[in-house]
Specification:
heterodimer; A: six-stranded antiparallel β-sheet; 1 helix; 8% helix; 53% strand; B: mainly beta; six-stranded antiparallel β-sheet; four-stranded antiparallel β-sheet
Chain lengths: 144, 150
């Protein structure tokens, strides 16, 4: 499985795009486990939110999102997750993880997919953060 | 970083003579997830549609006709060297005789089986025949590679 995560930050007043970058992600152990659970009919948990961590890998915040319709894309099945934070909260983050919904505070590295922005990204009170995270799973056509 | 790695499988197929215990064994490793298998995983991870669990292996002959359906069971997942594995096992100790050329892992359903619509696929390089005095044992291991968080 693979994917990319795009982050945009837009000024609410001017509409100016202040940050817009797309970065590849990696799938973590819990992501693979859940993918295999699905085929085996065991208990599994769908992805419902993105978790933001700072450069010290400390929890910053989580944002719930929604999925579009799965589609075929170049020998893979893909699906896009979109989450938006237009609150007045201000924070700085570097790492993001897609994860299931749960009550306790998540632990870095326990998510399904991880994304390293490479450097700090800051959201101010007057800005809207939008995350578009694509996950995809490649497949083969049967051999003749 | 593991990127664009599909879910693969390791297949072990054994034909054992019921009288002499003579064994024919085939084993391989390959990436083998089909479109429906990939779609099923995405359904489950994203909750966009109810996924279907794999419950059976379908055996096709050289003409791609379904010749046998064998229900199986799953073990527990296990991890080795940044890969998660889970084993599906299915046995046929009936007196049925049939040719084995293609195999697919599939979910349980009532309508006719169509070749190529399964979740995982395997093609034997040389067709095998199960005799009436033989037991067929299949262990189909699905595996997925993962990365550690940076």
């Amino acid at each position: 499985m693979f994917g990319t995560a795009r982050v945009t930050i837009i000024d609410k007043n001017t509409g100016k795009v202040l940050y817009d970058e797309e970065v590849h992600n990696v799938i973590l152990e819990n992501g693979v486990r859940n993918a295999l659970y699905i085929d085996a009919g065991k208990s599994y948990n769908p992805i419902t939110r993105v978790i933001l961590y700072n450069s010290s890998k400390e929890y910053v915040t989580s944002i719930s999102g929604s999925w579009g319709t799965p589609y075929t894309d170049n020998n893979s099945i893909a699906c896009n997750f979109t989450a938006t934070d237009n609150s007045t909260n201000a924070y700085t983050f570097r790492y993001m993880e897609l994860d299931k919904s749960y009550e306790q505070q998540p632990v870095y590295g326990s998510g399904y997919f991880n994304n390293d922005r490479g450097s700090n990204v800051s959201k101010e009170a007057s800005q809207t953060l939008t995350i578009t995270w694509k996950i995809a799973n490649v497949f083969l056509y049967p051999t003749e | 970083m593991k990127d664009k790695i599909g879910f693969g499988s390791k297949l072990t197929l054994k034909l054992t003579d019921n009288n002499t215990s003579e064994l024919t064994k085939i084993e391989t490793v390959q990436r083998s997830q089909l479109e429906n298998g990939s779609r099923n995983v995405i359904y489950g991870l994203t909750n966009t549609q109810t996924p279907n669990a794999i419950t059976r292996v379908i055996i096709f002959d050289s003409d791609k006709n379904p010749v046998k359906i064998i229900d199986g069971t799953w073990g527990d997942p296990y991890v080795n060297n940044n890969t998660v594995y889970i084993d599906f096992t299915a046995d046929d100790n009936s007196s049925d005789t049939y040719e084995i050329k293609y195999m697919e892992l599939h979910y349980s359903y009532a309508q006719p089986i169509v070749w190529g619509t399964g979740y995982f696929f395997y093609k034997l390089s040389v067709a095998q025949t199960k005799g009436s005095n033989q037991t067929l044992s299949i262990t189909w291991t699905i595996k997925g590679d993962f990365s550690t968080a940076p």
